[in-house]
């Protein structure tokens, strides 16, 4: 199967929406069928002893790569603007593999304080056990990150906007420091997806996607992606190989299926999410809405400068109210499900408590905090569901 970039023969580069539709497939290598087939396989046969000794063919072992995996890897690399992509079995595995690619015992890494919580666990337990020390830093640190660098610092890990509290990082400022001090810059780019933040144009070396979220897009598979610039590619490829990281065939296909409609879905998540966020800002029960595309967001200007859109995930800080009242609101919702993953077509809500795990920054919300994912339902129906929720909350408030 040919390596496919959607603008191979074109005089001008195609827009990301066009790439999402065309990259990573070659119908005429596949009897004209629009979608590449799912190759399921462990053993790959060699026609001669000579070819076997020399591993002289495109695919040699199911774990290493299959045409199905290569199709999606090529497509994500093309859309996100990286040199290569490696797929992993989950987003978390993309995080752990990417960090392990660069560290050894005695090293030190810088980790953003509002990072996805399991990433924190990885640093505090597994990395600590391997003799790698982690310093958590304020997501708003910007170029001030330079003061935290030690002689043994190897990498800076960013996530923007950060999980649960949605602070936006000044990635270009951090990238300048990373480049000056010869550190690797990693970013968890799941919130924006490959479409709404262009990591490699802002100086990131390695971009991580929990493809489970918007790329798969239908809450029906676990998948991760690590996309790299040229200089990071061989380190990530080696770590993936040595750790035995291997995505499932069906999951890879579902990722490919999701990717084709990602631009269209994200545009709707952006529109509907922002509409609900604005409406929530006007509610008397709400203290603050944590959505980077709102003018009220403290880093709104950074978001406007660097991002091309917003996804459907944001936070809400309620005015002080009892846990019982919040439970009355959430338990009765009809359209919003309660669960931890997100990025599917459906709306979700969870309560969260970011006070419980932060170490570098003090997070003091005015009241209980919720995280919403606005799905692809009709916005008026979603608003009505939340409105009825607020009525239950007020009725149950002491
Ligand atoms: C969900 C998520 C992950 C982990 O992805 P899984 O596929 O669930 O393992 C990593 N980073 C962020 C920001 C996430 O939201």
UniProtKB/TrEMBL annotation:
| Keywords, in A-Z order | Lyase, Pyridoxal phosphate
**SUPFAM superfamilies to which the protein is assigned, alphabetical:** PLP-dependent transferases (SSF53383)
The EC number(s) given in the record are 4.4.1.8
Required co-factors: pyridoxal 5'-phosphate
List modified residues, type N6-(pyridoxal phosphate)lysine: 213
Q: Keyword Lyase on this protein?
A: yes
Q: Name one GO biological process term.
A: L-cysteine catabolic process to pyruvate
A single GO molecular-function term is: pyridoxal phosphate binding
Q: Which reaction does it catalyse?
A: L,L-cystathionine + H2O = L-homocysteine + pyruvate + NH4(+)
Quick one: where's region Disordered? 1-28
* EC class name: lyase
Matches recorded under InterPro entries: Cys/Met-Metab_PyrdxlP-dep_enz, Cys_b_lyase_bac, PyrdxlP-dep_Trfase, PyrdxlP-dep_Trfase_major, PyrdxlP-dep_Trfase_small
Q: Which family does it belong to?
A: Belongs to the trans-sulfuration enzymes family.
Full protein name: Cystathionine beta-lyase
